Automatic annotation (TrEMBL):
Its cofactor is Cu cation. It comes from Gomphiocephalus hodgsoni. Component of the cytochrome c oxidase (complex IV, CIV), a multisubunit enzyme composed of a catalytic core of 3 subunits and several supernumerary subunits. The complex exists as a monomer or a dimer and forms supercomplexes (SCs) in the inner mitochondrial membrane with ubiquinol-cytochrome c oxidoreductase (cytochrome b-c1 complex, complex III, CIII). One of its GO terms (cellular component) is mitochondrial inner membrane. This is Cytochrome c oxidase subunit 2.
Length: 230
C-alpha cells in the first residue's frame, strides 16, 4: 500500500503492473537523458556566448533535431503500443466477480457460485479491537481471490460515477451507472492489497476503500464454502 514519503509506485503484484512500471522507468530514462543534454547545451551556450559567433543557420543541426526526435518517439511509442494491446487483451477467466459502486461502499457478487454476494464498508477506527488496522483502507468484508489465477471483474455503479482502483494490480476502471466495464487481472503473490475509489463521487468519496485478499486456491475454496453457508 502507499506510505508517506513514497516517491515511486507500489510494489507490483501482477504481471500487468510489472509492465507498467517497466514502461515508466523506460520513459523516464529517455526524458532524463534529453533534459540533461538540453540543459548542458543551454548552459554551455550561455557560458561561451559571443556576439561575433552567432549561429545564423546550420543544416547539420536542423537535420539532427529533426531525426533524433523521430527516434525518441519510436523508442517511447513502440513499448506504449505493446502495453495498450496487453491492457485490452481478454483472457479466459477462472473466476468472475461483479463489482457495484454505491454511495459510499462497494458490493461484490461471485457469479460463478450460488449466494455469494456481500457489501464492503470501510472499517471504523473507534475501538481498541481494530487498532492495528489501516485507517481509511480496511473494510469489514474483504474480496478474496486465489493467486496465480485469472480474475475477471465486471464493474458498474448504482448511482453516480465511481472508479474501482487497485494500484498494486495496475487496475483502474470507471464504474458508470447503466454501463458495464470489464477488466482482467492476475495476482502473482498472496497478500492483502488496498485501493480506493478514484472518482470524486460525493461527500464521503474518501470513505469507500477496496481491500483484496489474495490467498492460495485451497484457502479460497474454504472461504467459498464458508460464505456459501452464511
Amino acid at each position: 500500500m502507499a506510505t508517506w514519503s513514497a516517491l515511486g509506485f507500489q510494489n507490483a503484484s501482477s504481471p500487468l503492473m510489472e509492465e507498467l512500471i517497466f514502461f515508466h522507468d523506460h520513459t523516464m530514462t529517455i526524458l532524463i537523458l534529453i533534459t540533461t543534454i538540453i540543459s548542458f547545451n543551454m548552459v554551455s551556450t550561455y557560458i561561451n556566448y559571443n556576439m561575433d559567433k552567432i549561429m545564423i543557420e546550420s543544416q547539420p543541426l536542423e537535420l539532427f533535431w529533426t531525426i533524433i526526435p523521430t527516434f525518441v518517439l519510436i523508442f517511447i511509442g513502440m513499448p506504449s503500443i505493446r502495453l495498450l494491446y496487453m491492457l485490452d487483451e481478454v483472457y479466459e477467466p477462472l473466476i468472475t466477480i461483479k463489482v457495484m459502486g454505491h454511495q459510499w461502499y462497494w458490493s461484490y457478487e461471485y457469479s460463478d457460485f450460488i449466494n455469494i454476494e456481500f457489501d464492503s464498508y470501510m472499517t471504523q477506527l473507534n475501538s481498541e479491537s481494530n487498532i492495528n488496522q489501516f485507517r481509511l483502507l480496511d473494510v469489514d468484508n474483504r474480496t478474496v481471490i486465489p493467486f496465480n489465477s485469472q480474475i475477471r471483474t465486471l464493474i458498474s455503479a448504482a448511482d453516480v460515477l465511481h472508479s474501482w482502483t487497485v494500484p498494486s494490480f495496475g487496475v483502474k476502471v470507471d464504474a458508470i451507472p447503466g454501463r458495464l466495464n470489464q477488466v482482467n487481472f492476475i495476482s502473482n503473490r498472496p497478500g492483502i492489497f488496498f485501493g480506493q475509489c478514484s472518482e470524486i463521487c460525493g461527500a464521503n468519496h474518501s470513505f469507500m476503500p477496496i481491500s483484496i485478499e489474495s490467498v492460495s486456491p485451497t484457502q479460497f475454496i474454504k472461504w467459498i464454502k464458508t460464505m456459501s453457508l452464511l
